[in-house]
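Lab notebook, page 48
Experiment: co-folding of the full assembly
Goal: obtain a model of how the components sit together before planning crosslinking
Operator: M.T.
Materials (sequences as entered):
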Amino acid sequence: MFSLFICILIFTPIALVALQFNNNTENWDHIQQTVLTTYIFSTLILVLSTAILSTFIGVTCAWLVACCEFPGRKFFEWTLILPLTIPTYIAAYSYYDLLEMFTPMMIWIRSNFSPESMIYFNDIMVYLVTSLVMTSVLFPYVYLSTRASFLMQGNQLIEAAKTLGHKPSNIFWKVALPMARPAIIAGLSLVVMETLNDYGAVEYFGIPTFTIGIFRSWLGMNDMGSALKLSSYLLFFVFFILYIEKYFRGEAKFHQKNDSSRTYSPNLLKGKYSILAIFFCLLPLCLGFIIPITRLLFWASSVSGSFFDITFFQVIFNSIGLASVSSLLIVTLATILIFTSSYFQSKIVKVANQFAILGYSMPGAVVAMGFLLIAGYINQSMGYLLTGTLISLTFAYLVRFLAVAWQPIDSGMEKKCDQINQASRILGNSALISMFKLNLPLLKKSIIVAVLLIFVDIFKELPLTLILRPFNFDTLATLTYDLNSQAQLHESAIPALLIILVTIPPIIFLNNQLDDRL
Amino acid sequence: MLKNVLPNLIRLTKIFSLFSILSGEINIYSHRHYDSDKILFKKFTQQTGIKVNVVKGSADQLIQRLVTEGENSPADILLTVDAGRLERAKKMGILQSIDSKILRKNVPQLMRDPDNNWFGLTVRARVIVYAKDRVKPTDLSTYEALAEPQWKGRIAVRSSNNIYNQSLLASILAANGSDSALSWAKSVRGNMARSPRGSDRDQARIVASGLADIAIMNTYYLGVMSNSPDITDQEVAKKLGVFFPNQDGRGVHINVSGAGVTASSKNKKEAIQFLEFLTSKNSQEVFAKENYEYPLKVRKNKSKLLKSWGKFKYDQLQLSILGDNNTDAVKIFDKAGWE
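Observation: model returned without errors.
Model output:
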C-alpha cells in the first residue's frame, strides 16, 4: 500500500501534464498554425544530429578501447567518460564564442555569393555547432554502454569469426556491432533524453526546440495550458523512445553474460593505425573535457580572491548537503518500491512503478510545472505553502531522478534477489526480514552506484532548482547560471569548475564499478 | 509516519518565517542581477535597519511562483525589468495598489501603472546601434525604415523570446496597428544577418565583427561593455555608435525596470519605504552610475557616458499598454517566423 501511495504521489505531476494532451487551450490554434512545425523539426534535427554524432564517436571509441590495443588505451579507457561531468549548459558557456569563429567565413560567403546564402549557411552551422557541443559531453553515454557490451559479448563468437579468417573490420561490422546494438540504443536513449531536457544550451545557441516552446507559451504568452500541452507532446515522444529502447533491450538479455572476461586477444594496432586510434580518442576527450576545462580554468584564474567569501562556501555546503540528502532519500524509496514489486509479485505495483519512473524522461522544467500545479492545489485547499521549501525541492528531485536509481537497483534485484524473495516468501519470512537480511547485503553495490549517480545528477541540476529553491538559497549550478546571465563569465567559471571537480571522483568510481562487474 | 512528519515540518518552517517578520525585513523576488542593486540594498539596510532578503530568478518564473503561492507568499516585492511583465503581474492579481505621494512625485505618470500597482525605477532606451566605419547615421531614421530592402542581411537582433523585443513590437503595434506590425516583423526577420540568437551584447559583438552592420539593443549594455574589464568588449563598444530612432515622430521606444508590492505582502510599510528609497535622487544616481540606465527623470541624468550619447525624444506611450499588447506581439512574432 505504501509503495502504491508513493508511486501515485510521484506520478501525479506527470499525469497532470499527460492529461493536457486533449485539452484545448486559448492559444493552441495559433501555435499549431505558426510554430508547432518549427518546434517539431528543429527538435528532430537537433536530436538526430546529436544522436548520429554521439553514436559515431561513442561506438568507435568503445571499439578502440575495448577490442584494440594501442599506446594510451588504458588512459583513454577512463578519461573518455570525464565529459559526463560537464552539464550541457556549462559546455555551451565554455564554447560561447565558437560560432563567432566562423564570422570571417560568413562574410566571405556574403561578399562572394549573396546575403541569402550566408543566412542559409549560418543556420546550418548553428545546428552543427550545437549538436557538436552537446555530443562532446553526451557521447560517453553511448561509449559506456557500448564498451560494456563489447567486453561482455561472448568471446567465442568473435574468436570463431577470427579462426574462420575474417578481417577485424569484418568482425566489427558483422559480429560485434550487431550484438552491441541494444547497448548502443540504451546509451542513445540517454543522449536523446538529455538533449530534450536541455534548456541552457539551446537557448544560448538560439534553437527553437520544444523546451523553448514550452517556456515561450507558458511565460511569453502566459498560457500554461498550451505549455502543458506542448509538454504532453514531448512526453509522448519520449514514451515512443522508451518503447523502442525497451523493444531492443528485450532481446539483449540473451547474450549478456556476467562471467566472461577479456580473454580473447585484442587487435594490435601498429604504426599509422595506432596513431589514428590515439587521435580518434584524443579528439572527443579534448572537445568534451580538456578544452572546456582549460578555458574555465583560464577564466577562473583572473577572478580576485574576494570572490571566495563566506557566502561562497555556504553555496558549496548547500550543493553538497542537498545532493547527499536527496540522493539517499531517493535511493531508499526506490529500493522499497522495487523490493515490493519483487517480493509480492504484484502486477499493480509493477505497472505503477513503471509510471513513477517516467519523470527522468521529462525535461526538468516540465516536472517543475507539474509540481507547481500540485503545489497550487495544496496551497488553496490546505493552506500549506510548498513552494520555496527544501521539502518541495527534494520531492521534485524524487520525481525527476527516481528512474536513475531504478536502473541499477532493479537489474541487481532481478539478477540476484527475485528468486530468493519468492523462496523467502514461501518460507513465511516477513517482507521486512527479506528486505533487510537478504536483499540489502546483496544489493549493496547497486545501491552505492545508484546513490552516486543521483548525487551527480542533482549536483548538476539547474531548471528545477532555479524555479523551486527557497529564499537566499543558491547551489553551485544556480550560481553559475546567475553569474552567467549577468555576463560575469569569468566569475561563473569558478562554480562551474567546482561542479565538475566534485563530480569527477564519483564518475571514476562508477566507471571502476562497471569494470569490476565485467 | 510520513503523514505526521510532513505537516510538522511545514509548521516548523512557518515558525521560522514568523521570526523573520518580527525582526523587520523585506523579501524580494528579483529578476535584476546587477551590482547597482546590491549596493542599493545594502545602503537601504544601513539607513533603516530593515534587512533585505532576495530570491533571484527569471521574472516569469517568479511571477508564476507568486501566483502559486497566493496569500501565503513570503514575498513583499516583485522587482523586474520591463513594464510588459509588471503589467502581466498586475493582471494576475499578485500586486496591490500603493498610495504614496513620494512615489507619485518621483515616478513620471507614463512610467507607472495608472492604478499604482507598479512603479518604474530606471529607464532604458531600445535604440539602433551601428558600425561607425560602415554606416552613416544619416542612413538611419526610424524603426519602421529597418524593414526596407537596403538592410537585407545587415541587421542583428535577438530572439523574440526576449521581452525587450516583445515590448518594442507592442509599441509599434500601438503606433501603427497590427497589420503593419506584422509586415514590419516579417521584413526585419528577412533582413537579419543570421537567425536571432544570443543577448543584446552579442548583437553588439556581431556588428563589431562585421557580420552585421546595425543592431537593435538597449543602451546600457553598451555602457557595461565600454566599462568592462574585458578588453575585447571595450573594443567592441568603441566601434559602435548610438542612434535614437523616430526623433521626428513619436520618439525612441523606452521601457522601465520596476517593482510593485505584492498582494500578499506582510511588510507593506517597509516595502513602500523601500520603493521610495529606490526612486530617491541618490539611488537614481547609483543606477545611472553603476548600471548605465537612465534615471526616471531622463533629462536630469548626470552620467558622463549617458550624456555623450546625446539627448533624445522618447515615445510618450503609457507603458502599461506594452503589457496589454504583449500576447498579441508574441503572436505576431510567431506569424512572422521571427524565432
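Interpretation: Confidence is low (pLDDT under 50) at residues 254-261 of chain A.
Next step: discuss with group before ordering constructs.
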